[in-house]
Write a structure and sequence with these properties.
This protein is an alpha+beta fold. The strands form two sheets. The protein has a five-stranded antiparallel sheet with strand order 2-1-7-6-5, with no helix packed on it. It has a two-stranded antiparallel sheet with strand order 3-4. The chain starts with a strand and ends with a helix.
Length: 150
């Protein structure tokens, strides 16, 4: 299993070595002890609530979408309707193939650590907004308590 996590202090993302017992932030030297994980708990924080998502760069997906939109707009303006439909359907087919080709990554709701090369990622549920919102509210309350305590 490969692990990529943001530092809890400075939020700098970095990769952890496979089988390491601790992770040191390259920016602030903060040390995070890593826990043994069986794929159902987070190796960084031990949280049992994880979600599955596609390991795909969103910028590339938006670039394909915007490129297809611009190209189809130009061809439609030039009255090349068949070429317009070919571009739109081709970009949708390309997007579908990318979806099938790209593997899943398991992400922790609490610390956003990304677990790659997990044995059975399909047994982890997809993203659930209510669980994410609960952890987001927890983070906000923690930040407010830290500000009021200083």
């Amino acid at each position: 299993m490969r692990l990529r996590l943001p530092c809890p202090l400075c939020e700098t993302p970095a990769r952890a070595q496979a089988g390491a017992r601790e992770w040191r932030c390259p920016a602030c030297d903060h040390v995070v002890p890593l826990l043994p994980s069986n794929g159902s708990t987070c190796a960084a924080c031990g949280n049992g609530e994880l979600f599955r998502k596609k390991d795909f760069p969103h910028g590339l997906g938006m670039a394909v979408l915007v490129g297809a939109f611009l190209a189809s707009t130009i061809t439609y303006w030039l009255y090349a309707k068949w070429l317009t439909w070919t571009i739109l359907i081709g970009s949708a087919a390309f997007d579908g193939l990318l979806y099938l080709w790209v593997k899943d990554v398991i992400v922790c709701y609490r610390c956003f650590a990304e677990h790659r090369e997990v044995a059975q990622p399909e047994r982890i549920a997809p993203f659930e907004l209510t669980i994410h919102e609960r952890y987001r509210q927890e983070r906000l309350r923690r930040q407010q308590l830290q500000k009021s305590g200083q």
